[in-house]
Amino acid sequence: MVIATIRNQKNSNEAVDIVYLPSFNSFITEGIYAIFGQKEILIPVYMVLKDLDLVGAIVSTILEDMSLSRENGEDFRFVEHFELMGKNYKIEEKELWVELMEQREDFAYI
């Protein structure tokens, strides 16, 4: 089930869907590999339910970076940690995809 489609504003042929992946109780992008040859992005259900627009902004930002890298003839690499709209996120590389996660602060009590 497709819940959203994200299109490149400069090239509307570059469209990535966000689809529900019930076997992992997550959402996953569909189209990144076909367009850019990169792994799809797995997104936890709670992030999509909490703020679909924010997840769309995150995926859109990553797609823009992929597109710019390709236009400039550079290799794209997922960044491990990034900040968007005042929140910290991380991307963890897995065998078949990369997983998007909220970066939580670890607090140590002294």
Tags for this entry?
single chain, 110 residues, seven-stranded mixed sheet, 3 helices, 28% helix, 36% strand
Q: How does this model look, in words?
A:
The structure is a single chain. The chain is α+β, with helices and mostly antiparallel strands and 110 residues long. It has one domain (2-102). The protein is built from three helices and seven strands. It has helices at residues 32-36, 45-50, 52-71, and strands at residues 2-7, 15-21, 26-30, 40-44, 81-84, 87-93, 97-102. Strands 1-2-3-4-7-6-5 form a seven-stranded mixed sheet. Strand 5 and strand 6 form a beta hairpin. The chain is globular. The model has no long low-confidence stretch (mean pLDDT 90).
Strand adjacency order, main sheet: 1-2-3-4-7-6-5
**Tally of individual domains:** 1
Q: Would you count the extended β strands for me?
A: 7
Largest sheet features: 7 strands, mixed
Please state roughly what percent of the residues sit in beta strands, choosing from under 5%, 5-15%, 15-25%, 25-35%, 35-45% or over 45%. Answer: 35-45%
Helix content: 25-40%
